[in-house]
Amino acid sequence: MLTEESRRTDFPALDEMTYLNTAAEGIPPRCVITALQQYAQDKLLGMDGRRLHERQWNGVRQGAAELLGLSPDEIGICSCSSEAFNLAALALRLRPGDEVVINDLDYPAGVTPWLQPACPAQTRLWKSRGGALYVEDLVPLLSPATRLVSLSLVSFFNGFKVDLPAVVETVRTRCPSLIAVDVTQALGRIPLDLKGVDLIVSSTHKWILGSHGGGLVGVPAARAADLTVPAGGWFNIENAFESDRFERVVTRPGAASFCVGMPNYPAAYAVNAALRYIRDTGVAAIHEHAQPLVRACMAGLQRLPVEMLTPDKPEALAGIVAFRHSKAGDVHRYLHEHGIHVMYHAGRLRVAIHGYNTAQDVDRLLVTLREALNHV
Question: pLDDT of 203-240, one tens digit each?
Fold first, then answer.
């Protein structure tokens, strides 16, 4: 992933394109494709394949635990980050008068459960300034009624990385709120320090290079009682097949309660292989390789006639750089026609740089982008 040889071996698809859109979809290494093929072989064993499926499932919990700084028992797996946040909303049992703090740089998955008419809590919006979230703006939003502060470590919108230790300290000293952090745009790309976080959520098809259908959930054991999902199912139930199953329900506590039904075993095979690949490569090594490319991309974009959306704060820079242009749709089309893949949405273009990217990728983007801006 970090050398030309390993890049060509593990990611042959990248020979045909300049791929800078990992924040939307990661390109899986060969080992992930092999793992999916192995699932198909194991599925042919019928019920005898369940033991092999469970081994992969447990491998995901072990691998995720290592990256998130938890134990395997503190890891749950559902289908996606949206499901995780909706299940968390059930676990919180919010009441009228409760408050939830959200922010305007966050992904819909972490915001919309609290905005639904059925949610009895009031939302309070932490507004960004110049593309950044400032902790001093969070302070007046906190009160004894605050039940949850929900945020992304790295914003999908512009790549801003929040000062998480400062957020944790601020919340802990002012209110009894739980803290939920979506690490989808960080896991597998930057080293993590999640001390003090109560709920950790991540998708699996972006920076960790796995597949769709996996939602990683981390709940520290100390918070298991606060974040146990009262959902029907069987995989999440202690007594699902016991003699008293028609008289009472005993839910597995904490992270295990987020796994309500039959596991998505194909995703488990893919994610387990992807997590091994990321761990073997090393997140610190990925960050050391990719971060100079991000800074070079940022500097190059700042010299072009575009509106930067990513704040010029080196300490808050992760893997994403975003900008806006009045003819962004035409620019995106020009880039795509020239084999350069970035994300486009509503006038915004987003560049995402991972460990399989190179200085040549960034140079080609900047040269072609300048041509596109002149062309449109």
Answer: 999 999 999 999 999 999 999 999 999 999 999 999 99
Say which amino acid occupies 233. Answer: G
Compute the distance between CA of residue 333 and CA of residue 327 in angstroms, rounded to an integer: 10
Percent of the chain with pLDDT over 90: 99
Q: What pLDDT does 2 receive?
A: 87
* 3-class secondary structure, 203: strand
**CA 277, CA 47: separation in Å to the nearest integer?**
29
Report whether 251 contacts 230 (CB < 8 A): yes
Burial class (CB in 10 A: 0-12, 13-18, 19+), 126: buried
0.90 exceeded by pTM:
yes
Domains of the chain: 4-25+282-375 (3.90.1150.10), 32-280 (3.40.640.10)
Residue 218 DSSP one-character state: E
**DSSP conformation class of 287:** H
Q: How far apart are CA 126 and CA 102, in angstroms?
A: 6
- Residue 176 burial by Cβ neighbours in a 10 Å radius (0-12, 13-18, 19+): exposed
- For 255-311, how does the pLDDT look when each residue is reduced to its tens digit (9 = 90+)? 999 999 999 999 999 999 999 999 999 999 999 999 999 999 999 999 999 999 999
- Amino acid identity of residue 4, one-letter, is E
Helix spans in the chain (H) = 4-10, 30-43, 50-68, 81-92, 112-115, 135-138, 164-172, 265-281, 283-302, 328-337, 359-375
In 3D, which of 296, 218, 294, 220 has the Cα closest to residue 259? 218
Q: State which H helix or E strand residue 123 sits in.
A: strand 122-126
Q: Region 133-155: what's the mean pLDDT?
A: 98
